[in-house]
Sequence to fold (319 residues):
Amino acid sequence: MKVLKKFALYSTSALLAAAAISASAAQLSGDARAAIPHDVQQLVVIDYRAMQNSNTAMQLRDRVMPPDLKSFEEALRHSGLNDNHDVDELAFALFRLGNSADSLETVGIAQGQFDMDSIMANFKKQKIVPKSIRANKTYPLARTGMVLCFVDPSTMVFGSPEAVKAALDVRDGLKPGMLTNGSIMDAMRSVDSQPLWSVLDKSGTQIMMKQVLGEAGSVADYESVRKRLDSSWYGMDFQHGVKFNLTISTGDTFAAATVSSLLSAAVIYKKMSGNETEKAALAATDISSNSGLLNIHFATSDNDFNNLLNSTLFQSMVR
Fold:
C-alpha cells in the first residue's frame, strides 16, 4: 500500500477505493492510450463501474478520497456527467514534463458512454466558455482548477490545464506518447487484463521500493541494487477474496535476490510490532525472486481485508 502514497493525490483514492471490486478487465482504449505522454512514471487503471457496485469499495472511497477529487467529482455532476453511471474505466497517468524529474503532472482519463448533448447543454446553461487548443475544446471545472476535454464521445481527459494540454499535444501528434515507450508498453501487457492494475517506470519503481522498505531502504545492500530496478507492474483481483501481485524487473538475478531479502526482513520486523490482524496480513504475503524478477503475492479473504483497513498499519500507509 505504500505504493499508493507516492503516486499523485488523485490516483491514491482511485486505487484504495477499488477494494472489493468484482472481477473484470480494466483496459484502455486506443484513444485513451494515444493521449498519454511518453515519460510516464506511473499509470493506474481501474474498472470504475465495478467499483460502484460494491458497498465496501464506496465506503472506503469516501474515507480516503482527497478533497480535491471530491470537488472534481462534484463539478462533473454539475456539468451533467453522472460519474455513477457514465464512467466505465478510470485511469491516472503521472508523467514528467520536460527533462526534470521533479516536474510532474497527473492527467486523468475517463472512458464510458457520455451523453454529449446533455453535457454540452449543461455547459451552455452555466455559461461555461471553452478554450480552444487547436481543434480541441477544454472546459473549466469551477473551484477545482482543472479542465476537461472530450477527445471523442467515449473518452475524456481531465486535470490541470498544463496536464490536459500535454495530453492533447500527444494525441495530436505534436509530442511523443506512451505508445512509443517500450518498457511501459511491455509491462502493460503483463497486467492489463486485471480489474485494477498499474505500471511504473524505472524512477517510479525506485521511489516505490524506497517507500515500501522504509528504514531498510537506507542500508548499503539496497543502495547497491537501487539503480538496477528497471520497471514494475501490479494487478489486483477481487473475485474470490483480495489478491495482489507485484512484479519488479531488475535485469539480473543478484539484484532481485537482494531486494527480496530486504523485503523479507522488513516483513519480519513488521510482524514483531503489529497486532493480530496485521500479522495475519503479513503472513499472507509471499516474496520470491527468479531470473531477475522479484515477485510479491498477497491473498486474503474479504473479511480479513476489511479488518486490515481499520488497522494502524493501514492507516499509517494512507495518511
Observations:
- Confidence is low (pLDDT under 50) at residues 1-23.
- The CA atoms of residues 228 and 250 lie 5 Å apart.
- The chain has 15 helices and twelve strands.
